[in-house]
């Protein structure tokens, strides 16, 4: 058994779902075969704030193929205390530009779209405010921020420490409005079953957790969760935008309730995903650091201001990891928010840590220069023995080892610290680095897995996990094989269906921790109860036990990014010629899928650093560049030499597999490393992302 287990976890197995995906046989949500479907096209508000005065749907209702025009006037009622983002079409109020105000349902998608253009909606417009700035008059302190993190944290006397420090820096950094752009758009197919068309609901939906979607939607609809089934075996990316259901799901469900049991299909256009599927809000961060003569930090002050929706609050935990990253006796971290007439922001790959580390690690680079120290050595000098905020020991922390190994592989030794010292033709060349960390987030209870013996001597493992393109189909089979002590070929896996044992969503780098722990527990109970030769049909369902180490040790994944950047001296064009990430991930389940996730995250960090910026028109409240022609994400031509490696590790404090989180770790710190390298190349410090060419033509 031991030998088999060792051959499963840690092996670079190819994706089980790979052949299905490349041959087009993996059916995504919109492609699920349903009988006699109808098609939905939404109606969207053309004002940013106000109320609907009138709706004339007569022309649309008379158009060929139209079955239903849905508005707030005929929409089924939702729970009065429902999530404000999901409680749509219940009144005539407009809360943001492009809010859903209705939908047309027709026999074909073309007919629905054409008829939607025939609906005439008149509004009583009210003044709106989408402005964002540190001096906004409505700036406030939220009660808490994402993941229930405390809004503020203060230790020691930061102001006195800064006033008496040998060296200080005080800078403001900003990150813009950013939008998710998964390859698969948000899609939903909804069908009600029952004599009255409202008995049971089946949803084929692109999401990051079928159990989460069911748990959130059932109360909104006012029905028991067991009457809702959410099916999502394959998902073409999410990056947080599919972590929670959005209004488009409810819109489709409401329409399906009124069409006599026929399924209703809705696939968002790319433009619609920019306003209907959450986003990363713009942020302004101020970082102040103080250090003594030896380059040891005496004070860290990190404050963040983020934009949130006026009708539903979401604020990223931007400064959270600053509380545990570096040693300093005096620390202050704060979150503030500006309410605006915009759609609801939400989870975006490594929410909080991604923008937070851009500011923190840019500031650390600036302080290293101010202290006359190498950026790596400055960070090593400020390595804490225990977590500074809580005093807890680290479960494992190989951050320094990541920096040392990265420096060795990258050729950091002998680097001339002076900016602007290297040139290759018209290109100014520089190198930079940044650290990264991602905490272990733990949800309370609920994730389960089932193990069943099959007639042919093999095993089936059931869990409502989600594979959003990360390789969960394969990695969970490896964990299952190890836990049962059988070859991985002897495991059938079923995921992506709320009818299976409930599971945490794929988000927060928590998936493997919760899913793998539940599978390991189910396998343990199964073997104890049925032994090595179970009868066919023997089955066990078990719940992942709570982690006894939560609150006793500080648990994080770590890493270090190194970047080489070229900046055109004439045009300001920035090219990233090399990216290297070295990570502390504990035990790696599948090296092939792990490397893919890390590189994907690093490329998203590159895209954040150089390209991505949503632009709102304050006059009308809408996003101007809501397509991939104007909102640029990194393409093949932007990506040159990217490599990701990791140190050997095994952190059993995290989970029974010894694995740390992977999904978010690759993006955290990548943008800062690129910005630091660009400064080294040019001597120009860009503190406002993205680093577009004009910012280097000063």
Strands in their spatial order, largest beta sheet:
3-5-1-14-11-12-13
- Percentage of residues assigned to helices: 10-25%
**Number of E-type strands:** 28
Number of helices: 16
The radius of gyration is: 26 Å
Helix vs. strand class: alpha+beta
Distance between the amino and carboxyl termini: 65 Å
Mean pLDDT, to the nearest integer, reads 96
Largest sheet: 7 strands, mixed
Please report which band the strand proportion falls in: under 5%, 5-15%, 15-25%, 25-35%, 35-45% or over 45%: 15-25%
- What are the segments in which pLDDT stays under 50 over at least 5 consecutive residues? 1-5
CA-based shape: globular
Summarize the structure.
It contains 16 helices and 28 strands. It has 698 residues and is of the alpha+beta class.
Write the layout of secondary structure elements.
Blueprint: H1 2-8, H2 18-22, E1 38-44, E2 50-56, H3 58-62, E3 66-71, E4 93-94, E5 100-106, H4 109-116, E6 120-125, E7 144-145, E8 149-150, E9 153-155, H5 158-164, E10 167-175, E11 187-193, E12 200-205, H6 210-221, E13 228-231, H7 247-256, E14 264-267, H8 270-276, E15 283-291, E16 297-309, H9 322-325, E17 330-340, H10 353-370, H11 375-381, H12 399-410, E18 422-424, E19 427-439, E20 448-453, E21 459-462, H13 472-484, E22 491-494, H14 511-530, E23 539-543, E24 556-568, E25 574-584, H15 591-610, E26 616-617, E27 622-623, E28 641-646, H16 670-682
Parallel strand pairs: 1-14, 12-13, 16-17, 21-22, 25-28
Antiparallel strand pairs: 1-5, 2-4, 2-6, 3-5, 7-8, 9-17, 10-15, 11-12, 11-14, 15-16, 18-19, 19-24, 20-21, 20-23, 24-25, 26-27
């Amino acid at each position: 058994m031991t030998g088999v287990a060792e051959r499963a976890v840690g092996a670079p197995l190819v994706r089980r779902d790979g052949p299905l995906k490349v041959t087009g046989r993996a059916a995504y949500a919109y492609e699920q075969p349903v009988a006699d479907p109808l098609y939905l096209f939404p109606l969207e508000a053309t004002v940013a704030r106000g109320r609907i005065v009138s709706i004339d749907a007569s022309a649309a209702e008379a158009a060929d193929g139209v079955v239903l025009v849905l508005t707030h006037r005929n929409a089924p009622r939702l729970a009065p205390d429902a999530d404000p983002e999901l409680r749509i079409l219940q009144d005539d109020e407009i809360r943001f530009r492009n809010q859903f105000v209705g939908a047309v349902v027709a026999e074909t998608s073309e007919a629905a779209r054409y008829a939607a253009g025939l609906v005439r909606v008149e509004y009583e417009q009210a003044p709106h405010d989408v402005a964002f700035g540190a001096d906004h008059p409505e700036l406030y302190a939220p009660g808490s921020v994402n993941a229930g993190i405390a809004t503020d944290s203060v230790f020691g006397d930061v102001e006195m420490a800064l006033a008496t420090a040998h060296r200080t820096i005080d800078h403001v950094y900003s990150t813009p409005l950013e939008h998710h752009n998964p390859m698969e758009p948000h899609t939903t197919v909804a069908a009600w079953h029952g004599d009255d068309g409202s008995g049971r609901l089946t949803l084929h939906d692109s999401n990051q957790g079928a159990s989460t979607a069911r748990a959130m939607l059932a109360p909104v609809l006012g029905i028991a969760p067991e009457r809702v089934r959410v099916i999502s075996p394959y998902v073409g990316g999410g990056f947080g935008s599919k972590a929670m259901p959005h209004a488009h799901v409810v819109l489709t469900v409401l329409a399906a309730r009124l069409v006599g049991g026929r399924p209703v299909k809705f696939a968002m256009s790319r433009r619609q995903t920019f306003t209907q599927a959450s986003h990363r809000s713009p942020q302004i961060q101020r970082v102040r650091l103080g250090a003594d003569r030896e380059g040891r930090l005496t004070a860290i002050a990190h404050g963040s201001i983020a934009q949130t929706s006026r009708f539903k609050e979401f604020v990223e935990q931007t400064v959270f990891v600053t509380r545990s990253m570096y040693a300093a006796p005096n620390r202050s971290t704060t979150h503030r928010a500006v309410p605006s007439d915009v759609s609801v922001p939400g989870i975006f790959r490594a929410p909080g840590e991604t923008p937070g580390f851009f500011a923190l690690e840019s500031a650390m680079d600036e302080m290293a220069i101010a202290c006359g120290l190498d950026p790596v050595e400055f960070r090593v000098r400020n390595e804490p023995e225990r977590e500074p905020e809580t005093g807890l020991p680290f479960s494992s922390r190989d951050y320094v080892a990541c920096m040392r190994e990265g420096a060795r592989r990258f050729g950091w030794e002998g680097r001339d610290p002076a900016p602007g010292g290297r040139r290759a033709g018209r290109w100014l060349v520089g190198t930079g680095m940044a650290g990264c960390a991602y905490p272990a987030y733990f949800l309370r209870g609920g994730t389960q897995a089932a193990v069943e013996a099959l007639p042919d001597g093999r095993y089936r493992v059931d869990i409502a996990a989600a594979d959003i393109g990360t390789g969960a189909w394969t990695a969970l089979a490896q964990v299952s094989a190890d836990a049962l002590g059988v070859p991985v070929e002897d495991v059938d896996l079923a995921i992506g269906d709320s009818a299976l044992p409930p599971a945490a969503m794929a988000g927060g780098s928590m998936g493997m921790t919760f899913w793998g722990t539940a599978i390991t527990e189910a396998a343990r109970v199964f073997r104890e109860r049925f032994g090595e030769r179970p009868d066919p049909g023997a089955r066990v369902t078990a719940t992942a036990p709570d982690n006894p180490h939560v609150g006793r040790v500080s648990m994080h994944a770590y890493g270090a990014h190194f970047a080489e950047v070229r900046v055109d001296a004439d045009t300001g064009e920035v090219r990233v010629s090399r990216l290297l990430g070295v990570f502390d991930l504990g035990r790696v389940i599948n090296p092939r899928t792990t490397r893919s996730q890390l590189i994907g995250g690093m490329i998203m960090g590159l895209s954040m650093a150089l390209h991505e910026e949503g632009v709102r028109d304050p006059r009308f409240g809408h996003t101007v560049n809501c397509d991939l022609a104007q909102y640029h994400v990194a393409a093949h031509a932007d990506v040159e030499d990217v490599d990701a490696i990791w140190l050997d590790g095994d952190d059993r404090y995290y989970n029974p597999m010894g694995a740390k989180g992977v999904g978010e770790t690759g993006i955290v710190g990548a943008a800062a490393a690129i910005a630091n390298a660009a400064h080294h190349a040019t001597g120009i410090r860009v503190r406002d992302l993205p680093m577009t060419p004009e910012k280097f033509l000063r």
